[in-house]
Write a structure and sequence with these properties.
This protein has a single domain, classed as Orthogonal Bundle (Arc Repressor Mutant, subunit A), CATH 1.10.10.10. The protein is built from 3 helices and 3 strands, in the order H-E-H-H-E-E. It has about 80 residues and is an alpha+beta fold. The relative contact order is 0.21. A hairpin with a 2-residue loop joins strand 2 and strand 3.
Length: about 80
């Protein structure tokens, strides 16, 4: 949990989220999984602004890419 996510700072917030969440789904061997971060911690981990990240998560949910509640996610 103390490690930083190895993505370029030039990646978009969406790219960072998709990459991290896909990696977590694979690591936990499930499309439904829990991440070890709250929103601020996840934003810090991905080196992004928390409010911009929350907006992107909401857009992704509206687009049917994922579902989430707090730190529980499901990739669709």
């Amino acid at each position: 949990m103390g490690q930083r996510f190895p993505l370029s700072v030039s990646c978009s917030i969406r790219e960072k989220l998709i990459s991290y969440l896909s990696e977590e789904a694979t690591r936990q061997n499930s499309s439904r999984f829990v991440i070890p971060f709250n929103r601020q911690q996840l934003a810090d981990f991905l080196f992004v602004d928390r409010s911009a990240m929350s907006n992107e998560l909401s857009k992704m949910r509206k687009e049917g890419l994922l579902e989430f509640e707090r730190n529980c996610f499901k990739l669709l």
